[in-house]
Amino acid sequence: KIKRDKRVWLASEPQVCATTSLYAHHTHLSLKAVTCARMLASRVFGEHSCGCWFEAKMVLASVDDIIGSLEGWDPSTGTSGLSERDITNVCLQVIEELQKDAVLVRLEAPVAIVGDIHGQYSDMMRQIKERGHPSVTKYVFLGDYVDRGKFSIETATLLFAYKIKYPANVILLRGNHECASVNRQYGFYDDCKRRFSMKLWKTFTSCFKQLPLAAIVSNEIFCIHGGLSPGSQPTNERAHCPDAKNRILQAYKNNTFCQPHTMMYMPLDLRSLDQLEELERPLDTSTCPIVVDMLWSDPDPDITGWGENDRGVGFTFGPDRVQSFLQAHQFSLVCRAHQVTLLIRFIFAGFVPPCSAVRTKVV
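^ that's the sequence the OP posted. Answer follows.
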């Protein structure tokens, strides 16, 4: 049980001030403090004393408090009871930590790689319990922390708190659901607005725009949420890309709603993955086509080259495109999320096991 010192200041004149300390459990702290202050004010100064006022000065919970509170929280009992001020404080702090990471993060194994979470808080905690606490285990999360599940807010808040507390051990990549145009439609916006405010959703959106796009583990494994882009291929391979420009113009004519790809698409000349680090953040996906592809594209074992994606965004890519990418950048494999599979790991395009020095657990 976490207890904190809450001081409520009451005054009718500058010279008159009363202080009381409130101790409460971690749930509904702000509401309890303000309610108690109102009751005390009415007793001291009278219910109709128009000259008196009070201000509840709440002490923000520390990151350690929030981590302890969420780790000890049972989702079956309902929402966690975190205050909007505490969540906002975590978001503001994590922006500073995320800005310290490059858009393309490089790290060494061993590392646990975790796919889509989608607000499934209990599943996330089960994975962490099995593979080790972030204080001792290095993690790469591949994005899609919000939407669909019941506890997107708690999921994102705890991951942000872990990032603040253990910045070197927690790498948070961006998924396609960490885009305002997507999570506004699939539940996260409604969760924030119903439980807190639209302002909190906008605060989360600001955090999502700071997330890195990709990670490279031990110079062997390329980690990304979605998939490859024609812009990430050698220049002589671009001919396999379908006529994307005409496809995007057609999307304009059809007035496709809130789709990141409704822009003039011209593949970037990505001569080296290091060029990803030149992208400036906050990163708006609507201004960078290659980012859209990396968040949305899917593999297709039945095609050669590039194909149309049924999602309406990004591309599909065949095994030959994967092999070309691996050879061009001297990687062993691409590790991605973005799709549901009945297998623990979906092996695609001739999986090449990493060298013995790379001890990686894929979740």
